[in-house]
Amino acid sequence: MSLLDASGLNEEQFLQQYNPGDFPRPSVAADIVIFTIADVEGDNFRKLPGKELRVLLVRRGGHPYIGQWALPGGFMRPGETVGEAANRELVEETGVNGGYLEQLYTFSAPGRDPRAWIISCAHMALIDSGQINVHAGSDAADAQWFVVKTENAGGYIELSLSGKDASLHATAALQNGDTDIQITKNVGLAFDHAKIILYAVNRLRAKLEYTDLVFRLVPERFTLTALQLVFEAILGRTLYKAAFRRKIVDLVQETECYTSDKGHRPAKIYVKKMKEEGGQNERTNTGEF
Description:
- The chain folds into 2 domains: 27-208, Nucleoside Triphosphate Pyrophosphohydrolase, CATH 3.90.79; 213-272, Winged helix-like DNA-binding domain superfamily/Winged helix DNA-binding domain (Arc Repressor Mutant, subunit A, Orthogonal Bundle), CATH 1.10.10.10.
- Helices cover 19% and strands 34% of the residues.
- It has helices spanning 11-17, 82-94, 193-208, 224-235, 241-248; strands at 27-40, 50-60, 69-70, 73-75, 100-107, 118-126, 140-153, 156-162, 167-175, 180-187, 221-222, 252-258, 268-272.
- The chain is globular.
């Protein structure tokens, strides 16, 4: 026997007379923070290349925020989940299918998009720079990689993004133990994308402490020095060599191979340890890097 509601309707009757238009509905977008690690040439023959954390941005080709830089993304299509929409946008922007993609946060502040009530279900993607074929989507005028740098100062965080022909900047106030980010100044970034980028940077840095996610950003074979440079690029600070190696010992496995670069002393090559069953390897957290 079907249960009846207060109007005396069973579920089938209720659904027949239900009108979705009786309630305002938002549009849902999937915006993606796509990170990669890129090499920076050394300033002399013997110096090893440095590493930079970069994020992919597109220059908007239409209103609103025409000419400003934004995260790649787009609206969900009928029959899609937000994850499927994000993966579709990732493939369209980079040509990479099956890369690392995780849901970051849902941004739903009133007025975040001047067009309408639009919710962004933001995602974070990690791409090996050697895999990428970047091109601007149909609604974008250009696509570029921007170097990501942050600096904390007295309850505020400064976000600087540097591209080949553009420099973007945002200032954020940190509240509630750094978990609530409020943008107080924004130069050149569309919508609330400065806030989304900062959330993604914080997520990525936090995951360095307890997962093996970093290996999504390095080649299959690497030296420990190169791996440390990747950690430093993400964290935005220099690490002590001995302490770093103690902390990552459970994540790597040495091979019998050595580098043979001219001008550099041979260094042992390592690979990531085989993943344990069930997903990302987790490790004992013995303190921050």
